[in-house]
Design brief:
It is a single chain. The protein has helices spanning 10-32, 39-52, 63-70, 74-86, 108-129, 134-147; strands spanning 61-62, 90-94, 102-106. The protein is mainly alpha-helical. The longest helix has 23 residues, at 10-32. This is DNA-binding MarR family transcriptional regulator. InterPro entries: HTH_MarR-typ, MarR/SlyA-like, Tscrpt_reg_MarR-type_CS, WH-like_DNA-bd_sf, WH_DNA-bd_sf. It holds the Pfam family MarR_2.
Amino acid sequence: MPASNNPALPGDLSELFHRAFRSLRHSWSQRLAPFELTPHQFRALHSLARNAADPASADGMRLKDVAERLRIAPRSATEVIENLEAKGLVARSADPVDRRATLVTLTPQGLGLTEEVRAARREHTESYFGRLDAQERAELARILGKLGGHPER
C-alpha cells in the first residue's frame, strides 16, 4: 500500500496529530465565543486563577510571567491583559517590590467567568473525546503523556 494511503505509517502521524489538534482548537474557539474570549485570553485567565490559588503568589503575576506562561511576546501579553482589563476581568497594579513591574490579578468577575469557562471546557472535553471508549481514552492519555515527556508513573 502506498505511504500516502496508510494513515498508520509514522510519516503521517504528525499530519494526523496536527489535524486532530486543529479540530480540537477550532471547536474550543467556537465554545469560547459566547464568553467573548479568545483562547489567549482564556489561557491568561486560567494562569492567573492557578497563580491566585498559590498563597505565595496572592499578590498577582507579573506581566512578563504571564507572557512566559502563554509562550507569547511580552507585547502580545500586554495586549491580552489590556483587553481583559477593559472587560473588567483583571486589574493591574504596580509591583510593591519593583515599581517598574506590573502585577496582574483577577477581579471577582474574572474569577467567576474563569470558573464558568472551565466548566464549559470540561463539558467540551467530554463531548470531543466522547467518541473514544474508556480504553481508547486511557491509551491516548498514555501516549500523549509519553510524547509530552511525562511517562506513566
